[in-house]
Amino acid sequence: MAISSSKKPHGTPPPDPMPARVDPCIAMLVDKPPKGPEWAFEVKWDGYRLALHIEPDRIRIITRGGYDWTHRFPSITAETRQLRLKTAILDGEAVVLDEQGRSDFGMLQRALGRRPSAHEPGEIILFAFDLLYLNGRDLRRLPQRERRRMLEPLVAGHEGAIRLSEEVQADGDEFLRVVCELGLEGIIAKHREGPYRSGRNDAWRKITCTRRDSFVIIGFEPSTVTDAIGRLLLAARRGGELVYVGGCGTGWTREESVKLRELLGEIETDSPAVNLKRKGAVFTEPFLVAEIAYRAWTEDGKLRHPSFKGIRERADDLTIYELK
């Protein structure tokens, strides 16, 4: 008599269902790079976070917020077909590079804009840095080092619209120093043993480059809700003249903002130090200097992510930022 067995024959496990969308892993902002061999480092790209979904019958490009922007990235979509992958989800950042190879968010926005621009959608590059799903297997529970090992042969060596975000074997402090000297956004540190977790967590850490310089205060925009400063208007020097470089609206307490408005109110003028027209702005004599921390310069010569650090009198023009 035959004896039945409840054991199933050995074979290929059933495929993992492919997620329709994966909320991205978000790096936590920290002041210093972590130490130790368990950390891997990459350049922090300044662009749009995207998930590239590859299926047998379609390609989808999903934004961090869950929007389908496939139609806005035709060059990435076209190159995806050359990867010859059956099913996959790649995590990466879409950027436009300047002449020095640095990602520039302003250039990316213009390339995606509806208005005519010097930058075209074909200039947009996806730097892939993680692999979440491949050929029927959900990889998110694997450690970062293993996902990275599987990603590299898929995109390494590509120099078109999809490229590998290189992993750097280096001391974090030294890598950050070099990246900042090159004018890049910063670095990302990833724990090699960490699985892929959606949302913000410290298995991924970002360390940004900041600059700090002195700029002349040429006016301010009043706060719309309190008797305080809403935004400082700032200028740098070019030759013997002052040039407007944008505004700063963060970095002070409410009490500091009120005192700052009182101080600037004593040097108001009807003759702006620069040729600038802004509705509601109050212009001041260029007697005071603000210490400003910021990340970079925009393509049109304005401060990016400025933050107020302090104020002093314009005693020494040599300390004022000089535009090239």
TrEMBL record:
Pfam families: DNA_ligase_A_C (PF04679), DNA_ligase_A_M (PF01068). Residues 1-20 are annotated as: Disordered. Gene3D superfamilies: 3.30.1490.70, DNA ligase/mRNA capping enzyme, Nucleic acid-binding proteins. Its EC number is 6.5.1.1. GO terms for biological process: DNA recombination; DNA repair. One of its GO terms (molecular function) is DNA ligase (ATP) activity. Signal peptide: none annotated. It comes from the Bacteria. InterPro entries: ATP-dep_DNA_ligase (IPR050191), DNA_ligase_ATP-dep_C (IPR012309), DNA_ligase_ATP-dep_cent (IPR012310), LigD_ligase_dom (IPR014146), NA-bd_OB-fold (IPR012340). PROSITE patterns: DNA_LIGASE_A3. Keywords: Ligase. The keyword Ligase applies. Residues 117-241 form the ATP-dependent DNA ligase family profile domain. It is an enzyme of class 6 (ligase). It catalyses: ATP + (deoxyribonucleotide)n-3'-hydroxyl + 5'-phospho-(deoxyribonucleotide)m = (deoxyribonucleotide)n+m + AMP + diphosphate. Transmembrane segments: none annotated. Belongs to the ATP-dependent DNA ligase family. This is DNA ligase (ATP).
